[in-house]
Please model this.
Amino acid sequence: MKNTLWLVLLLALSFCTEKAAPPTPVLPVPEPRQIAWQELEYYGFLHFNMNTFSDREWGFGDEKPEMFDPSDLQPRQWAKVAAEAGMKGLIITAKHHDGFVLWPSAYTEHSIKNSPWKDGKGDLIKELAEACKEYGLKFGIYYSPWDRNHPDYGKPEYITYMRNQLTELLSNYGEIFEVWFDGANGGDGYYGGANETRKVDKLTYYQWPEVYQLVRELQPNAVMFSDGGPDVRWVGNEHGEAFETNWANLMRDSVYAGMPDYPEKYAAGQEFGTHWVPAETNVSIRPGWYYHTYEDHKVRSLPNLLDIYYNSIGRNTSLLINFPVDTRGLIHENDVDAIMKLAAKVEKDFAVNLASKATARANDERGKGYEVKNVLDEDYETYWTTSDGTEEAEIKLEFGEELSFNRLMLQEYTPLGQRVKSFVLEKEVNGSWEKIAEGTTVGYKRILRFPDVTASTVRVRFTDGKDIPLISKVGIYDAPKLIIPPTFSRNKSGEITLSSPDQGLNIYYSLDDSDPNAESQQYTNPFKVDQATTLKAISVDPVSGKISEAERIDVDIAKSNWKASQANGELAIDENPESYFESGDNNLTIDLGEELIIKGFTYMPMQGRYPKGFITNFIFEVSTNGNSWKQAASGEFSNIVNSPIEQTIRFDGVKAKFIRLRASKTADGNAATFAEVGVLTK
Ligand code: FUL
Model:
């Protein structure tokens, strides 16, 4: 009898300590290498190669190795910047489309071994691999399958070359975490002097299954990126934005690198995709992937970088931000400044998880090991889930006091598959529930941003899913406001729009050159200014009372009555610097609609990604009747190629009803282009 009692006791005890049965996986599920990769979240891209020196985005393949001549190449600076910015790895363009390679490959002469850098004795891949190790970063390789230099490109022999080079890269430089295969092929190229167009069948030519096998053999832990994987897929655009609904699942066998309808059809993944192929968001910190001095003033702003962060990492993708390393061989100061600002702001946004001190309750718990408290710890491996078949699982968080917050972060435990299809965050108000925000898929990580909310109890309801949700983490944060000046735009009729850099901020402005404060005119709607004046505007956080610096902008008379004499000339007076007028006869003539005394003019050169026709030498003429013209100024826009910002020329007041800006020379000899032309009347 005694023995039986002991046995019962022992059985009961073991029952209590035993973990409940795990949930059944929802297929597809990730490979361990993909789980490890997903946890990196954030890493950097380095576009540095021949294009840096030829000042191009896509080299033709006929560039000379001697051109690769950095004056101060420091891979350790790249690694230091990345590590300090919170990145977990770096991927470098070992070979881009022009075919030049950054390591002394035994299979080509088109490499750094024939460049002046370190007298041809350097190995940049090795130096960067070492720098990454020193700074605790993972190291990855971008390798362009398209090669505009190689004579055999398009023939079977080239595939052997590609495999040989991959073998070098994946054998000699230690652990590689990601191999990045670019899907681009623009056709024409140098091809060893043939100078012709060679397009290949992107699906079959590269013999992808064999290439994948080679990578697996040499670097079993590396993930491979291309449009459709096999391990990591493209997000479908280069501006840093994932779809809100974003599945890691993909119909992988229907996708190949460089397929034309990929962005619309496959970039968001598919709920019933057959394979686990999560997305990576790749975006450059400047308009171009490679360095161009003329983009030094175009490094992304903090609000833009923050949007990218929330719209990529916050939407179930990893984030790969590119640094176009400059001709010295350094990440440019402006880019360093921008990435550090992003790092500091992200750190502040997620500094305190308000949920971690809350009491969490769930409407159902699966049992031992799957308790709701698991969503509050920092361990991704522990998660909360419910009994099989539970409909509308929910987690309630009781803070014990009224708290203010504006971010929700959720993480699914993805090793058993992506499940959640929709969820809603609600707060309790006098015994009933009010919606704060809602979302669709979660995946590895989902972050919602919403205006400040106060509540003492909230709940997250999982309203639809492929199966019961497995939730590893719930975070609630109170991100501080981004208190920087408002952004400004003006249309042709002189209407000014001010936009707040963050939700919940007020904007105040002055139009009389005085410094605005929280007592000044508050901005509510666009307003018209048709005379020359100075606008100063600030952003104010009504809660903390914090005030941004003032933005000061000189505006001149509105262009509402202006008319251009040439067809399309309107594009240069529409107050939109992104549109431009290209003039076959190198001038732009404008009727101002009234006679004015003008004291100068402005010229904004073309702002597009591939600018052309910058005016370097100008003649500016005025007329009161449109027939007889008088020269008011002539001269040079000295640094316009390197710094294509608005140029301002002043002169003594002259009468004008008509103005004409004439290019006596353009930087590249192309027809003159005009993004925007204005006059100064003050
Ligand atoms: C694209 C390339 O064509 C660009 O030059 C750049 O390397 C980008 C990351 O991928 O497909």
About this structure: The first strand starts at residue 42 and ends at 47. The chain has a mean pLDDT of 95.
